Amino acid sequence: MTYFVGVDIGGTFTDCVVLDESGAARLYKTPTTPAEAAVGVNTALALAEKDLGLDEGALLDQVRYLGLGTTVATNAFIERKGVKTGIITTRGFRDAVLMQRGMGSWTGLDSDEVVHYAQRKLPDPIVPRTRIEEVTERVDQKGHVVTALDEDDVRRAVEALVGQGVEAIAVCLLWSFREPSHERRIAEIIGETAPGVYLSLSSELAPVLGEYERTATTAMNAYLGPLVRDYMSDLAASWRERGFKGRFRVLDSGGGVITPEHCGRTPVSVLTSGPTGGVLASARLAERLGIPNVLTTDMGGTSFDVGMIVDHEPTVTPLQQVQGYHILKPAVQVTAIGAGGGSIARVAQGELLVGPSSAGSVPGPVCFGRGGTEPTVTDADVVLGIIDPDYFVGGTFALDKDAAERAVHDRVAKPLGISVAEAAAGIKSIADHRMADLLETLTVGRGHDPRDFAIFAYGGNGGCHCHAFGAELGAQKIIVPSTAPVHSAYGAVMSDLHITTELSDPMRSASWHDAARIFDVDRINANFHRLEEQARDALVESGAEAGRITVQRSAEIRFRMQVHGLHVPVPAGDLGQDHLTELLEGFRRQFAELYGSEAVFLGAGVEIVSFRVQGRGEIDKPRLSHVAADRSGLTDAPLSRSIHLGGDWGTVTADIVRAGALRPDDKVTGPTVIEHPNTTVFVGPGQTAVLDDLENIVITIDAKESRA
Known about the structure:
- The chain is of the alpha/beta class.
- It contains 18 helices and 36 strands.
- Helix 11 (about 375-385) packs across helix 13, helix 12 crosses helix 13 (about 420-445) and helix 13 (about 420-445) packs across helix 14 (about 460-475).
- It starts with a strand and ends in a 7-residue tail after the last strand.
- The relative contact order is 0.11.
């Protein structure tokens, strides 16, 4: 038998999905081991071996493909555990990455956070000023060499950085994306004088306009490079030693998978690797279900991650904002808040607060019995009766309900002078409202009607809370995928190879109406041909078959002198003036839809700033047929139990159904708890749920009845 494996190493749990040749899937969930990620992964694989009746260590020998989603780069950056890094830049531009265009103190903050000036601060620099060296050279905006590279200056800079013990160097020169020869020569000199130093060149990594952003991206890549490279190498080696002979690929942030070697060269491309998997898995499922618009919601142990699929395509952002830095790598857009199962509840000045701090996997929620003392959202779910403490992770991980009740009492109920049940309901309600608010911001705030979207709820905790935030948002329906407990891991195994190539080649026209005639169409075609060739070559190098590669093209366009542009799809093939006219008209429509027709200012003229190609190489993999259900203990499930919802509902009696007992077209009416071995789905009062042909739970809401 041949198997296909997807793994997602999250902050609290490591998720694993194993598919056989027929498309039957088995789902596993084990606690993440932060100190040594391979331990958590190998534990999940051991569970699969036992489930499949294989000898210990026998599974990897039969795995044809393994896809991985990981937070290794994100965690290393957040915790500042990257290597000592230096920067070499053009003389006179040493402080560009430190100044951050004045945006560092508010980048990535919510609008209500931005106005609190006293709470804003610049991010800790990953490269201090003492490790930024300037060299004499200059290239102008047209790519002409104005001042030759002073190689003695370069050797002095490299010697100074090596003397400070740097393990990585980022090279980012002014206008290097127009003429990269100086950066390439610096790389040669570093290779001659400091061959063991990790090297990152801006002209290779992000050859696009934006001096600060390009420097920040290149510096971040160098800072994370050795750690991520070694992590991937060690992980692959450990699996090879255990008999793995298949292909190993890593989820990147842009919408597919890359080789571990590519990941080691461009670690900034995996900063949102894990959450991306869930969005990609949702896009594939939505396509099978015929649903064009989806809000993806991933509620794990640490955070609540939201993505958007519009007209069957995940929303992609050309610029990531990560912990106060701008990163010039396209990524599937995922917005996160600290509202996971491990989010800590506390009382401050008489007010109940939930998140963003998390108990993580260690010590975890109080009910985990691992030393946690502060109540979390998961503790509240246990206290309320939504989660059965005796059937958590299929009954293999017993929870301590008494400890959870004591923590909720001591830390929340007693300070507020309310009952434990009311306190737990308050914790859940605040978390639910925070999630609904985020969903509303991402839809209404971008000109979308939430009623046009279905919600896909997944992650270990998504099913417990989707009944509330989905009803509050007014979504058309809520779908809990059959792979919900490990949905991001499923995305890792089902995604295709993905490569993005891009370059900046600014073209400007002071006249909107004559722009299509003024722009050099041959130059535009040459840029796209070059990028397509780069993407195809990279995909073939990664193992893609030439006949199974597709490309999508786009151009970044903006009104002249604006700071930011919009990425507009570009049709395949050679372009003519008529195509350019259609392209510019598409930009005008897209701009009006986002900002209103009143904001369109044709008199400003127009600019084409950069060009992008996204290449995909299809990977052979089975199509999901069904999830192998765990039917153990079906007769032991209680018929019902009391659940306290608070508010108008108070305490309700909910039916209890084990997921393995449901068959396609089976229907349940809320309040009902559907218990999976790895997650729990709560169908609220006034809601109904049906198991569809793909074993997804489809929840519909009666607007007259629902008071969530």
